[in-house]
Design brief:
The chain is mainly α. It is built from 7 helices and no strands. The chain has a domain of 89 residues: Orthogonal Bundle (Death Domain, Fas), CATH 1.10.533.10. Helix 2 packs across helix 5, helix 4 packs antiparallel against helix 5 and helix 6 crosses helix 7. The protein is globular and about 65 Å long.
Length: 128
């Protein structure tokens, strides 16, 4: 008779994510936030990702060639979603090391100082 094997995801304290589908889910769940918040033009994020071999020279050049930050962020997220969990961990570490800890804190639910905005909409009073 065959063995029954159960796969369990364990979140280790040393790494935020250790499963390929989990890190792509994190990107997908935080996609709009990441598009609007990542700062790759004014930080050394791409240089760090390149130096740690998360990005190839071609990927880095394709991302920096985009005309707007929004499009650059789209391209970066597309590339990151195809990377390994270890490379995604290096991306998270790079966020910490280039002044974007608040982005990492939000997408990893890590405690820390997080800046956010609240939009309040008031409806007009009902008329009888």
């Amino acid at each position: 008779m065959g063995e029954l094997c159960t796969l369990v995801r364990v979140r280790s304290y040393g790494a935020d994510y250790d499963d390929h589908s989990l890190h792509t889910s994190v990107i997908r769940q935080n996609y709009v936030f990441l598009l609007e918040t990542l700062d790759i033009k004014c930080s050394d994020l791409l240089c760090r990702l390149f130096s740690h071999e998360v990005l190839s020279a071609m990927e880095r050049d394709d991302i920096t060639a985009e005309q707007t930050s929004f499009r650059s962020n789209e391209k970066l997220l597309s590339v990151l979603s195809r990377k390994s969990p270890q490379q995604f961990q290096l991306f998270l570490d790079a966020l910490d090391n280039c002044g974007q800890q608040h982005v990492r804190n939000v997408i990893t639910d890590r405690p820390g100082l997080v800046f956010f905005a609240i939009r309040i909409t008031f409806a007009p009073p009902l008329r009888n």
